[in-house]
Design goal:
alpha/beta, six-stranded mixed β-sheet, 47% helix, 16% strand
């Protein structure tokens, strides 16, 4: 795969960085329709218009810039999500097939986290990185150490460094600089000091760049295979994009909860999904206005006393629960519960899926689904998985929500469901059946259970990569796996972690989430005929947005 998203990152943000950016843009436009993007700029930015004049994607400054740098400093985590959205919107509008992304500028504000921020954003935007490092006022060993630390910082964020531009380098030192940096195994170009502050010096800057970094060499550095990291921010944006590509209708039974309507407004504004909000339309819209929400009117609202919907709903519920002797009176009473009412909207085909749980318990969400939506043909249970978004990849943890003490057959079923969930979200599943034993290192009835579950799983899905029983560290770490599970291709590379019981699963995902900072999306309820997903009662608005989007994707 040719890398066509290039991030220019510099530990200084000045001292030749502009020359590099302008020259790389020239190389890219010689082959691709290339847009320019600046993730964070000040309101005094004068460089972006110069770049845009040399671009061939036709975008203006507003679409080519993400956020004001002051806003970024105030909240970098929120900023990263916004920048991903702005960048992908610009790509969509421009229809460019390449992007030059130029990191933050030099500033009088000394923010020690700036370089780390640039590394994180490069990963969010799935871009290869060119480093621009200045050698002025640095001894050779100081330049070497600066380059080393810069590369390490980029790789720590999951990025691939494609090449190094050493700026401010006198021609007589070029050979020794390249010789010193050759150990990094990357292309190295040296550029002499060139003043480039405005339009008047752009021609000189480009001439100098071309002389020392020929276009064919720069383009050749991009022609490498890289695996882009999947950061939480990139994954969340991908969720929204996948949901929008084939819009489904999701019902929200808890329509009078502020977090629910904030999430609904966000998704409706971006036309990501169609929504049915259960509750009083006038009251919900009035509350939305108080919260400054402008897009709630695009939803469909469903009152629970609407006889046009309630009458066929009662009849269908009586039909579905006939073996339990449900009467019309009992059905009407049952349907005063918003969870049941919303679930029946799915059963009757008004909606494709449901999200609930911001106010009510998991049982209130799962019980109606089990009773009237029921499990998929051939499946006997429902399980709960979390999509765990780590710094540079996404994994699946299950069962963390439903089954207390699954037997071997149930555990194998949970593993199959979890592998299918992984595939639905673009993850090639490699399953680890977790235990306190790795491939026979420990004994006991709990180990026997996981051994039997692993055997059943292999019989059911012989082509599914699986290892078990295995300890978490041997499943997670290639280094540990090399010792504990030597020769096993799956150990150390597991991305679907199947816990032996609910206690381990629930503790495990929460411990990892809180201690590592991973984003936990879910639980995804697996095995149901129609997608129904539960929220934590402590869910944030962004959690609700993510869960609605993944429910829509499941419905696809």
């Amino acid at each position: 795969m040719t890398v066509t998203r290039v991030y220019i990152a510099s530990p200084e943000g000045a001292n030749g960085r502009n020359v590099v950016a302008y020259g790389v843009l020239n190389a890219l436009t010689s082959k691709y329709k290339t847009m320019v993007f600046r993730p964070a700029v000040s309101n005094h930015d004068e460089f972006t218009p110069i770049l845009l004049a040399a671009s061939n994607a036709g975008l203006g400054v507003s679409l080519s810039t993400g956020l004001d740098v002051h806003k970024v400093r105030a909240d970098k985590d929120t900023a990263r999500g916004d920048i991903v959205g702005e960048f992908n919107y610009a790509m969509e509008v421009s229809r460019a097939n390449a992007a030059l992304i130029v990191g933050t500028d030099k500033s009088h504000v000394n923010d020690p986290t700036t370089y780390e921020f640039n590394a994180d954003v490069a990963a969010d935007l799935k871009a290869g990185v060119f480093l621009a490092v200045c050698t002025m006022d640095r001894w050779p060993h100081e330049l070497d150490e600066t380059v080393q630390l810069s590369i390490e910082g980029m790789r720590a964020a999951g990025n691939t460094v494609l090449g190094i531009f050493v700026t401010g380098c006198e021609p007589r030192h070029a050979f020794s600089v390249k010789e010193t940096l050759a150990k990094y195994g990357l292309p190295v170009w040296t550029l002499p000091q060139v003043p480039f502050t405005d339009e008047s010096t752009k021609d000189l800057a480009l001439e100098t760049f071309r002389k020392h970094a020929p276009i064919d060499e720069v383009l050749a550095a991009l022609d490498v295979d890289v695996t882009a990291p999947i950061t939480p921010y990139a994954f969340q944006f991908d969720l929204l994009g996948k949901a929008k590509s084939n819009k489904k209708t999701i019902v929200l039974p808890e329509g009078e909860e502020d977090r629910i309507i904030k999430a609904a407004d966000y998704l409706l504004e971006r036309e990501t999904v169609n929504l049915i909000i259960v509750g009083d339309k006038d009251a919900i819209l009035a509350r939305g206005r108080e919260l400054g929400l402008n897009s709630l009117g695009r939803a469909r609202f469903q009152a629970m006393d609407d006889e046009n919907v309630l009458k066929p709903m009662v009849a269908k519920l009586c039909e579905l629960r006939a073996k339990k002797g449900m009467t019309e009176e009992q059905a009407r009473k049952q349907l005063t519960d918003a969870g049941y009412f919303g679930t029946m909207l799915v059963v009757l085909g008004y909606a494709d899926g449901l999200v609930s749980g911001s106010v009510h318990s998991t049982a209130n969400t799962v019980r109606p689904a089990l009773q009237v939506i029921k499990t998929k043909p051939g499946q006997k249970l429902v399980s709960g998985a979390f999509l765990m978004c780590f710094k540079d990849h996404v994994a699946v943890f299950a069962d963390c929500a439903i089954n207390l003490n699954p037997d071997a057959e149930q555990l194998s079923e949970i593993a199959l469901q979890s592998a299918e969930t992984a595939r639905a979200f673009g993850i090639d599943p490699k399953v680890g059946m977790l235990s306190y034993s790795t491939l026979g290192s420990g004994k006991g009835p709990d180990v026997d259970l996981v051994e039997e579950a692993t055997k059943l799983l292999k019989e059911k899905a012989p082509d599914l990569p699986v290892v078990g029983p295995i300890q978490f560290d041997a499943a997670w770490s290639p280094t540990v796996a090399a010792t504990k599970a030597k020769g096993n291709d799956v150990a150390g590379h597991v991305n679907v972690f199947v816990f032996p019981d609910l206690c381990a699963g629930n503790i495990g995902y929460k411990a990892v989430q809180r201690s590592s900072g991973a984003l936990a999306i879910g639980p995804v309820l697996q095995g149901l005929n129609k997608p129904v997903n539960d929220l934590s009662r402590g869910a944030l608005v962004q959690d609700i947005i993510n869960t609605i989007a993944l429910t829509a994707i499941e419905a696809q």
